[in-house]
Amino acid sequence: MPISPLGAAHVAASLAALAFGALVLFLPKGTQFHRAMGTAYAVAMVALNIAALAIYRMTGRFGPFHALALLSLATIVVGIFAITQGRVGRHYQMMTFSYLGLLSAAATQMLVNLPVFSGRGMTVGIASAVAFTALGAIILPRLQRRALATIETD
Fold it and tell me: Which of 33, 64, 70 is nearest to 48 (CA)?
């Protein structure tokens, strides 16, 4: 099945967000590079979510994936607003959970294309979301303490 221009834009923005988000998550915080890559991540996330909100190929109507796109947009907006208010911890939480959501969506997309999961998209999506949320709840607080302790200011 050929991909539409809207689908291609969604995929391209998703791949960009995955790359920018990894750089932001794993490199030092508070640097000019962090800010630049964070801005690129946020722009890519907004683009991919706007594209997702315009895709109705699967159901023909607003569905659970559209609701998740709205939730994703909300985490980005809250994360950006938090940093403008100097709430670094809240910024970190929102942006890392945004990235976890992106990883969960990517994993789900890959899994549902495997023949063994054919026709089980919603179940695989829910299982992926639960797994990534649990992983985030365990790992992210540890990473956050370390990241916030080493913030570079200029």
Answer: 70
HSE-CB for 69 with a 13 A CA cutoff: 19
Structure confidence by residue, pLDDT tens digits, 28-51: 888 999 999 999 999 999 999 999
**Mean local confidence (pLDDT), 60-77:** 85
Within a domain: 102: yes
In 27-120, which residue ranges form alpha helices assigned H by DSSP?
Answer: 32-54, 64-84, 88-112
Residue 154 counted as domain residue: no
For the chain, what is the domain count?
Answer: 1
98 CB burial (10 A radius; 0-12, 13-18, 19+): buried
Confidence label for 77 from pLDDT (cuts 50, 70 and 90):
very high
User: Which residues, at least 6 apart from 3, have a Cβ–Cβ distance to it below 8 Å?
Assistant: 11
Round to the nearest angstrom and report the end-to-end CA distance of the chain: 50
Q: Which domain holds residue 144?
A: 5-149
The answer to the question of residue 35 being in a domain is yes
